[in-house]
Write a structure and sequence with these properties.
5-stranded antiparallel beta sheet, mainly beta, about 425 residues, 1 helix, about 0% helix, 4-stranded antiparallel beta sheet
Amino acid sequence: MFEGTLDYSNTYNRIAVSGNYVHIVVNWNSGSAKELVYFRSTNGGQSFEQPKVLYSTTAQDLYNVHISAQGSNVGISFTHDCWYCGVKKTLILLKSADNGASFDTIPVLQDQTGIFSDFANIAIEGNYVYLIYFESVGYWANYDFLYHFLSSNDGGYTFSDQVISIPAASGLHHPFFPLSSSNGYFPKISADGNQVWVIWTGFDEANQATVFLNHSTNGGADMSPAIKVSGSVHNIHAGLETVAAKGDRVYVVFNTNNDKLFVNYNVNGNGFLAEPVEYTPAGARFIDSGIEPQLAINPLDDGAIILSTGPTLGQISPDGVVSAPNYYGSHSFTSTRRPKIAVSPEGYVHMVVEGGIEWLATGSFSDNEIWYRRVNLNQRDTGQVDQALRMRIIPNPGDGSGLSRFDNMIIGAEVADNLTETH
């Protein structure tokens, strides 16, 4: 596959999976044109068809690339930018109703003056399509914006447009950028049936950094006023907040500037907690801090699963009980970045994280690798009876050839000389 360019901040969502279909999109500079290239697998990623160029232009750039899929519906949103053209920016939706076999090209929004930006998310739920974007207002250097929410109930052919942000102390709206530079991608929209939630961070009426949530029960036709979900916590690392919802259960997680994670939830219809719960316990090694949280619904009970750097994995029960995170990292490196999570309907959590770049005794850094782990949320599989843990004894030959987890250790000669007895 191509190595994509023009995503310098690593904030695009380029992959979506629906059933056995895997959809990947890349914005590519071929040298003579800027292209949007699409890859499709129909067998769960075992093989991919020949890539297709879905969109091409010789004028300026294609960026803000995001993809979403549900059932046979696939949507790709992106910005076509041309600063010297009559239309400075165009938000374009490529829409497929046949699992990506064909796409319609839909210009959603045109910007004549260059005041639109941050087309940062797309979500598809049935025939609903949701998008977000910023509109600059006032003096440009003040970074005041209107936060817009676009919703379609006809598969993306027509959209309604609502402003969901609120005024700051100046009277102008001041939401923060929806994705934090270089920290990766974080979903800002969660949808289930005709319900949809949008999370964002910005100044409240007193210019305090606050995490907000908007909600609709009719497919985005009407959005609720912004709800504060961060309580008295205001040292917020903007752009890392995210939301996941199922039915009437809604979960949010956000980061602070000192690498703490906080969660809030509404699981019983009584509203969100007045104060969020700190998820990273103080003083607990490996789990007392984290950044770049990912959130997913637990398919076994409609609770929530939280993944963060480490990686660490924890849960919020459907009754609102927050469990402390478990550490699934490796002690061979301490720096991890950009965790990602996917959960199968059977309850398997698949997580990947970047890790490595440790200074070695050889005078160089180790490689930055992609690490993968799988965790089974179902602690007792169907049909299994109570059993005691049974361990198989595998003699350790001491030469590094062992196959079990700790049977591949070897003791160097410089250490062995100091040992008088082994067990």
